[in-house]
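Predict structure. Chain length: 111.
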Amino acid sequence: EVQLVESGGGLVQPGGSLRLSCLVSGFSVSYMVINWVRQAPGKEREWVATIDSVGSPTYADSVKGRFTISRAIAKNVVYLQMNSLTAVDTALYYCTSGDQRGQGTQVTVSS
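Prediction complete.
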């Protein structure tokens, strides 16, 4: 059974950075497509980024140039490096693969 566990969220000031982690168990990330998705209160879920099985990333326009998705195969972890954060980035972030998703990690951008 594939399990996804996110970590790394927190409170950060505007302009700051955070790195989120998605620890995967039950299957190797080298064979998986992993997505980062976020949902802010009262808003619909928004796709943020994807890394495919060969390690190629794609990004939503709203985060392109600020966020970087990557993976560490030996650790079976997928990261989301987030820079130049603004209040608009405040949301619950979670990773998904197929029908599986983690519990999410909260990111709050506020001064």
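Summary: The radius of gyration is 13 Å.
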